[in-house]
Design goal:
single chain; alpha/beta; eight-stranded mixed beta sheet
Length: about 425
């Protein structure tokens, strides 16, 4: 239930999370499930968060990330809106060479499992709002804006815009790529703006998608068609993530629905039969950002506040949820041992766990975008041959598929489907 803190004296908690989006909300629920008292601060009230206008975006929830959502109770809230990804097909423009990932080829414990699910962001936000409203260990202060942060011992303090004073051994910033708390902590970030925009919309189509996610590399950038659940009236739907050069994107947005639909169809042919745009279209600038460090005294960054990547692999939300799983585990474990869960050694374990993985995927997505977002003949031939070669190497394909599912490496318990 939304609540306000006291004025004039600090209102204590075990952890303060600033930012109630998909990553910050998931962290609050994970910590609460681990027995910690959490204060969640956000500018948007929970009812408004749940009723927010559709923004066109859907997220890929990897197989391991779904385990986390199940453990914190969120999956049951969104499963009705989740479409399994059964196949992934990667192609380079009009080339006949392609890479095909089939979930039936996984084998072992993962045999038959989907790579992940496509879920509308609105469904995730509504589910989070419902759970946060009812969570006994979470106090939501919203609408509220975080102001000055101060670091002390044994707690950090946070002043809100209305004069409310909060205190906790740990403050976590989940306040996005423009994180005000990251700036306060004087944590610099390496960042640049891609000369591309992402255009997103929902496409209705005549033929079923059969759970196939398509990614076609074009000179302006990747064009992805991601399977969604059917509309209530039975219309087949897919989410479109169209990367376009930033100077051309405004013109694309001004096209009529008929012309926009024709442009979509021109990019992937008649695979889906007749297509149409359902609802609106949205345009987002694309950028890369990586904080030079994730932690400081009694302070940690997660999600977009720590890293923002190109959407070429659809892993943005999954990286944030991996942050949630790692940070929740080290914090809850130390708290149970009676240790100072906001102490720098605890937070540095989280940073060592997450930073290499995030940096590696950022390098891969940035490199792929640069490699494929051009139409240079020799480069195009080399990458097409590379796609075809990987497609004929079952062992390497399985490894890539497991990476896409988030099941490779030393996984935190929540990503293994285990409770904290």
């Amino acid at each position: 239930m939304a609540a306000r803190g006291t004025h004039g004296r600090p209102d204590p908690a075990d952890v303060i999370v600033v930012g109630g989006g998909m990553v910050g909300g998931a962290l609050a629920l994970a910590l609460a499930a681990g027995g910690l008292a959490v204060i969640l601060v956000d500018r948007t009230p929970l009812p408004a968060l749940a009723a927010a206008a559709y923004d066109g975006r859907a997220s890929a929830v990897a197989y391991a990330s779904q385990r986390l959502l199940a453990q914190i109770g969120l999956w049951r809230e969104v499963e009705h809106a989740a479409e399994p990804i059964l196949d992934i097909r990667v192609s380079d423009g009009a080339s006949s060479l392609f890479l095909h990932y089939d979930h039936r080829e996984l084998g072992g414990a993962l045999e038959g499992a989907p790579f992940g699910w496509i879920v509308e962001n609105g469904a995730i936000r509504r589910g989070l709002a419902a759970l946060l409203e009812a969570a006994p260990n979470v106090r939501v202060l919203a609408p509220a804006t975080a102001g000055r942060m101060s670091v002390g011992d044994p707690a950090a303090g946070l002043a809100l815009d209305d004069g409310t004073a909060l205190a906790a051994p740990l403050i976590v910033a989940a306040d996005g790529a423009e994180s005000a708390l990251r700036a306060q902590a004087r944590i610099a970030a390496v960042q640049w703006r891609y000369p591309q925009d992402g255009i997103v919309c929902t496409m209705g189509h005549e033929a079923p998608h059969d759970g196939i996610a398509h990614e076609r590399f074009l000179p302006a950038g990747p064009f992805a068609v991601l399977p969604m659940t059917d509309a209530p009236d039975g219309t087949h739907r897919s989410s479109i993530v169209w990367t376009e050069r930033d100077e051309r994107a405004p013109g694309v947005m001004r096209l009529s629905d008929a012309a926009f639909g024709a442009e979509m169809q021109r990019r992937f042919g008649d695979w889906y039969g007749a297509v149409q745009v359902l609802g609106g279209r949205w345009r987002y600038p694309l950028r890369l950002l990586h904080a030079e460090r994730y932690v400081g005294p009694r302070f940690a960054l997660i999600g977009d506040a720590a890293h923002t990547i190109h959407p070429i692999a659809g892993q943005g939300l999954n990286l944030g949820l991996r942050d949630v799983a790692a940070l929740a585990e080290v914090v809850v474990d130390d708290r149970r041992l009676g240790l100072d869960h906001g102490a720098l050694p605890t937070l540095q374990r989280y940073e060592r766990w997450r930073r290499p993985d995030n940096a590696a995927l950022m390098a891969v997505t940035d490199g792929l975008n640069r490699l494929f977002s051009n139409d240079i003949g020799p480069v195009r031939l080399a990458r097409d041959l590379g796609l075809a070669a990987v497609d004929r190497m079952p062992g390497l394909k399985r490894l890539f598929m497991q990476h896409a599912m988030g099941t490779v490496g030393a996984l935190p318990r929540l990503l293994r489907g285990e409770a904290l």
